[in-house]
What we know:
There is one protein chain. With 161 residues, this protein is an alpha+beta fold. The chain is 33% helix and 34% strand. A hairpin with a 2-residue loop joins β6 (111-116) and β7. The protein has helices spanning 17-36, 42-61, 147-159, and strands spanning 7-12, 65-72, 75-79, 87-90, 94-101, 111-116, 119-123, 128-134, 139-143. The chain folds into two domains: 13-63; 66-159, PH-domain like, CATH 2.30.29. The chain crosses the membrane at residues 20-37, 46-67. Keywords: Membrane, Transmembrane, Transmembrane helix.
Amino acid sequence: MTxxxxxxxxxxxxxxxxxxxxxxxxxxxxxxxxxxTDERERNGDLLAVVGFAIITISIILGFVLHFxxxxxxxxxxxxxxxxxRRVKIDLNSIVKAEKGTYSRYLFNxxxxxxxxxxxxxxxxAGNDAIHLTDRDGLLxxxxxxxxxxxxxxxxxxxxxK
Length: 161
């Protein structure tokens, strides 16, 4: 078997547009409230500090890796943050792989290895996901920003002997 991965994707926590928009709106509110406080009293200065803190946290979150997806050696490996366990899905046990939507909702929280109602979910950002069904009927929903390439790599690994 080769060590070269057919597909690799890294998903970062702070790069989704909806949470970025929310954080920037909060920072703008803090700066606007600071601007309109009378005579820049001490509480007004606190608003400016909070606004800068929100922007700093937003920048830092842009570099925090939520999880990494790798398709290689007839398996899909999902490796998360520091304290999470590595999840390895054997493609020999997968009976169906298809592209679909992650959720019908507009706002979705990032999740890693969330077990709920017979499904295991992995998601950071985007609308597309890969649905993998194993022999036992367990459904893996893996969110991806490059779902077409991810599905192609999975199907090629499933065909390879």
